[in-house]
Amino acid sequence: MRLTNLIILSASVTGIVAVPFKFPLPDGFPSPSPAQLAQIEKGAGGTLASSFLPTSLKSGAVTALELLANNELFEVAFFSELLTNITSNVPGYDAASTAPLDRALLIKSISAIVNQEELHALGANAILAGAKQPPIAPCQYDFPVRNFREAILLAQTFTDIALGTVPVAQALFAADGGEELRNVPLLGSILGQEGEQDGFFRYVQQKTPSAAPFLTGGSLSFAFTALHAFIVPDSCPKPLSSISLTNFQPLNVVTKPSARNMTLVYAVNGPVNCE
Questions:
Q1: Average pLDDT over residues 196-221
Q2: Can you tell me the distance from the alpha carbon of 123 to that of 116, in angstroms, rounded to the nearest whole number?
Q3: Which of 2, 72, 130, 132 registers the highest number of CB atoms within 10 A of its CB?
Q4: Contact between residue 96 and residue 252 where contact means Cβ atoms under 8 Å apart
Q5: Which is nearest to 215 in space by CA: 167, 170, 261, 175?
Q6: Contact by Cβ (8 Å): 193, 46
Q7: Which residues contact 17 (CB under 8 A, 6 or more apart)?
Q8: Is the pLDDT of residue 189 over 90?
Q9: Can you tell me the distance from the alpha carbon of 117 to that of 48, in angstroms, rounded to the nearest whole number?
Q10: Alpha-carbon span 11 to 231, nearest angstrom
Q11: Residue 187's closest CA among 163, 215, 221, 161?
Q12: What pTM was estimated for this model as a whole?
């Protein structure tokens, strides 16, 4: 379902040129002052986590945090643009497009998500910096959506991917042991918070808030590959190629997907190991 949603959205907006999203934000993010950080925390409903910062990280943990920081920065960009489109009544995001949702509650909810994701990104970079690793700076982003409904579907899709990825990072931290162990509960709190968001995105689409009793697991490289779909090439201060993860080759759509029962045909370049 996650992969199909991404393919449907990408195929539906082929040929549409959008202005890439760039930082910084009006609230100073990604480098807010202490006063701006206080306002971000107020909007998020809580403060930046006061977790223990390890003084060293093993290579697997560094890779996982680099991915998580990149992903959180992407999410800040996505939800900031979504909020601007809603509050500016951009066609496809106006009151008629978001009905029957309570518009004031919707704006309040998306605003909180923006601030919460800002704190997630700041927290991931703080852990990297505490271990004397360079923090991740934002890239430029492009989102394959044209209206509110498509945006919420995409939000659910990449949050699903995050829910499968964070436990992998927890396992890496736990296996490494030592100072890294103290951040396993922190990642658990982020996992729960992302689950709350996902329930909201599903509810907006008139789906049951909880998808299944046990969610599908993920992998760091799968999430890394999905992230590439939203990043403007060569726009990252730290090249994505420097992160020790696999960016899988594109899965080309041979038959255009639609919202019905059908057989989909895909193609990839080069040999494929189906084992």
A1: 94
A2: 11
A3: 72
A4: no
A5: 167
A6: no
A7: none
A8: yes
A9: 11
A10: 17
A11: 163
A12: 0.89
